[in-house]
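Protocol step 4 of 5: obtain the predicted structure for the target chain.
Materials: sequence only (see below). No template structures provided, no constraints applied. The aim of this step is simply to have a reference model before the mutagenesis design in step 5. Sequence pasted as it appears in the construct record:
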Amino acid sequence: MLALYLYSIRKNAKSVVSISLAVMSKFVSIIIVPFLIPREKTRYLAILFLVIILLYLPYCSAVKGLFSTLFQFGTQYRYNDSIHFLFLCLSFGSPFLSKTITLIIFSIVFFFLYKKYHDNILRFAFLVYGSFLILAPTVHPWYLTWIVPFLCFYHSKAWLVLTGTVIFYYFMNHSFFSKLIEYNNELVWREVHWLKLPEYLPFYFLLIYEFLKNRLPTGQINCSVFSKK
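Step 4 output (structure tokens):
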């Protein structure tokens, strides 16, 4: 949010430094970097790489180990996913195929949003982070903190509800519902798929409703289920 604010007040250099620090904290922040780099001004790209390199210097002795965990997490792990889980089932349990499909879909959505909202970075960031969470193979509850700040500007009941229903994630980490299993040489809680229904169904129901409400002319949506009796 700091990077977006600095960008909005035309503090481009400070904005790039801020997003560089965010990327080093959590790599997912890199998805909004293209929007924060002014076109035809490569010096800002140089600032981005300079900050990242400087912060990596103390760990350069690790060499290959620097990104091994990231690679392992991206290729082998998944937990509490929604759309990705559907693709996993359709791809006969192949993580490679399901993650490839979701990556392609996210790339298409990313470039569509980039083209449509090139003059509204706040809207772009909100939608691209939301798309990432919807398609991500792993969604821990704290990942929703990426989207929460945007709810101050875009009042989405769907995302607000998900911040509450995500509590069902923790039920999967309790012996009453699940059990510990060995996975990649460590003990993890086995995923309980039916617990994702009360977590995600209200979210997707509201998300589709909000989409239709914004797209269709007033009166074309039957809102009887939302009316008071």
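Step 4 remarks: The chain has two domains: 1-66, 67-226. Confidence is low (pLDDT under 50) at residues 219-229.
Proceed to step 5.
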